């Protein structure tokens, strides 16, 4: 039988299950999609009951396999989400969507009681983002839906709730607490004072290290069970484990997030206003980060390009970098303001749009750069030759690499508890790179 670790990687859209062998090769993979349901206010949210059934049924399906010997299980999932449970572990409320508008009156009440948005943001390394500050979801529950708050015995971050389905034990973990929640005071490495004053801390499970695992018995089988990680922190683990030199990672998708674990300077007001924040590594270190909404802008401009030049939607993937197409143009205030009608061809328009993306990317990355010598790019833009060439030109003193880690979030969750299930050394070929 093949020794493996089971990983559930739960995204907003796709939910995935993997079995990795001891060399971190995928030996089984499943993917499922659930239609969203509506909360009591009619806003779209996760179907937590359907997801719970799938997690339990899937692990049960493989736990007594004749092919695989499951040694451990762990979870990665999106953050800024709480599961609210009563004293008998029944769901008290839906898994509210972090995109749901935050009640204006509740927000005003919070900041009038505990300081300005800037003051709270500075202490918690969390730009004011409404429900994306998941700690404020609990404050809203207390004052906007007090009956639900009274029934809630524990509020568990989403990744840790998924783990508790298997382990029966509920914990908090630093990667979830420390990610733009407005819960954690980075200056004193503890919960912010408002959390205690509002008795929110009494609703939160004890903190447990996501670098450790629990010994559990699941359906008659002894397992190591991780407590789950926030997906952004999980995806950072393969890099922090494999790269010895200081580096910066630009993780590209809908958001392009520049992450630097080697910059320990405190966030300033100016940086917060420019969309900087801090993540936490699974070992408790601070990852100073900046965000750029470039992936979203890219999607919008691609649609305009296809409509204007009558090309297939993904035609941009065929475009090679051509420096002669670049024009000297003023910097855009917003990337979505890019006017495709100012150009003679799809290629010319696209190349100059990516130039604008790089101008914005450098401005964003420079906020946390700190003169590291190595820059990695993963995600969609890592496959984009024009983006990568222009980024390398923007950072001539750094080594700029397109990097790829297959299923980085899931592998990160497996690597977090490597020593508890895997007797081999961590492989050194997890990351494939191409230098520009």
Entry summary:
This protein has 436 residues and is of the alpha/beta class. It has 15 helices and 20 strands.
Tell me what the structure shows.
The relative contact order is 0.13. This protein has two domains: about 1-225, ATPase, nucleotide binding domain (Nucleotidyltransferase, domain 5); about 230-405, ATPase, nucleotide binding domain (Nucleotidyltransferase, domain 5, 2-Layer Sandwich), CATH 3.30.420.40. With about 425 residues, the protein is an alpha/beta fold. It is globular and about 65 Å long. It has helices at about 50-65, 105-115, 115-125, 135-145, 145-150, 160-165, 175, 195, 230-240, 270-275, 295-310, 345-365, 385-395, 410-415, 420, and strands at about 1-10, 15-20, 25-35, 35-40, 45, 70-75, 80-85, 155, 185, 190, 215-220, 220-225, 230, 250, 255-260, 275-280, 285-290, 375-380, 400-405, 430-435.
Could you list some keywords that capture this structure?
kinase activity; FGGY_C_2; 15 helices; Nucleotidyltransferase, domain 5; alpha/beta; ATPase_NBD; 20 strands; transferase; 34% helix
């Amino acid at each position: 039988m093949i020794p493996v670790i089971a990983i559930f990687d739960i995204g907003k859209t796709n939910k995935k299950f993997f079995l990795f062998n001891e060399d971190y090769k995928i030996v089984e993979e499943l993917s499922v999609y659930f239609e969203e349901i509506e909360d009591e206010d009619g806003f779209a949210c996760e179907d937590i009951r359907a997801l719970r059934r799938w997690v339990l049924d899937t692990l049960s399906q493989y736990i007594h396999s004749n092919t695989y010997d499951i040694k451990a299980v762990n979870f990665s999932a999106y953050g800024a989400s709480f599961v609210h449970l009563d004293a008998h572990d029944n769901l008290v409320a839906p898994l509210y969507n972090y995109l749901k508008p935050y009640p204006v009156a509740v927000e005003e009440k919070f900041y009038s009681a505990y300081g300005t948005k800037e003051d709270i943001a500075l202490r918690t390394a969390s730009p004011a983002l409404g429900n994306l500050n998941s700690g404020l979801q609990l404050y809203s529950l207390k004052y906007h839906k007090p009956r639900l708050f009274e029934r809630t015995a524990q509020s568990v971050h989403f990744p840790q709730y998924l783990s508790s389905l298997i382990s029966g034990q509920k914990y908090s973990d630093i990667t979830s607490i420390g990610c733009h929640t407005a819960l954690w005071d980075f200056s004193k490495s503890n919960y912010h004072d408002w959390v205690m004053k509002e008795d929110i801390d009494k609703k939160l499970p004890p903190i447990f290290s996501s670098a450790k695992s629990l010994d559990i018995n699941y359906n008659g089988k002894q397992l190591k069970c991780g407590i789950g990680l926030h997906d952004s922190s999980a995806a950072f683990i393969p890099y922090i484990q494999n790269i010895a030199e200081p580096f910066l990672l630009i993780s590209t998708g809908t958001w392009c997030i520049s992450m630097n674990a080697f910059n320990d300077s405190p966030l300033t007001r100016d940086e917060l206003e420019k969309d900087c924040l801090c993540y936490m590594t699974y070992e408790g270190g601070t990852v100073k980060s900046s965000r750029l909404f470039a992936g979203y802008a890219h999607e919008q401009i691609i649609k305009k390009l296809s409509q204007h030049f009558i090309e297939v939607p993904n035609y941009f993937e065929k475009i090679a970098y051509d420096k002669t197409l670049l024009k000297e143009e003023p910097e855009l205030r917003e990337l979505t303001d890019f006017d495709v009608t100012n150009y003679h061809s799809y290629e010319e328009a696209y190349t100059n749009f990516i130039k604008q993306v790089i101008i914005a990317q450098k401005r964003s990355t420079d906020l946390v750069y700190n003169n590291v010598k190595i820059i990695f790019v993963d995600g969609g833009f890592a496959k984009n030759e024009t983006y990568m060439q222009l980024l390398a030109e923007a950072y001539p003193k750094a080594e700029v690499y397109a990097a790829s880690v297959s299923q980085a979030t899931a592998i990160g969750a497996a690597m977090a508890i490597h020593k508890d299930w895997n007797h081999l050394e961590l492989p050194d070929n997890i990351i494939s790179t191409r230098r520009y």
